[in-house]
From TrEMBL:
It comes from Ibidorhyncha struthersii. Keywords: Cytoplasm, Disulfide bond, Phosphoprotein. It comes from the Eukaryota. Pfam families: I-set. This is OBSCN protein. One of its GO terms (cellular component) is cytoplasm. Residues 3-86 form the Ig-like domain. The gene is Obscn_1. It is found in: Cytoplasm.
Length: 86
């Protein structure tokens, strides 16, 4: 069983204008096969035409494309028992 990854670089608050992209980034202590999940409020996010979710090694990135006022709210990233929010 692999040791749990922890969040070593937490999310930063992002301010963006309607129509712009908003990017959020989190870094883990190690690469992991554990489920990592992004949320907007309580809604789990999937990678699609509006959201781009990238994983490069220990770096996890969420890009919200062309944000609207409806996208305003808390973004959180969860892996195992660890959570970071912005």
């Amino acid at each position: 069983k692999e040791p749990a990854a922890t969040i070593v670089e937490t999310l930063k608050d992002v301010t963006s204008y309607e129509g712009e992209d908003a990017a959020f980034e989190c870094r883990l202590s190690r690469e992991t096969t554990q489920d990592a999940q992004w949320f907007l409020g309580d809604v789990p996010l999937q990678s699609n035409e509006m959201n781009e979710i990238r994983v490069q090694g220990t770096r996890h990135t969420l890009i919200l494309r062309k944000v609207t006022l409806e996208d305003c709210g808390p973004i959180s990233f969860k892996v195992g028992q660890h959570t970071s929010a912005a």
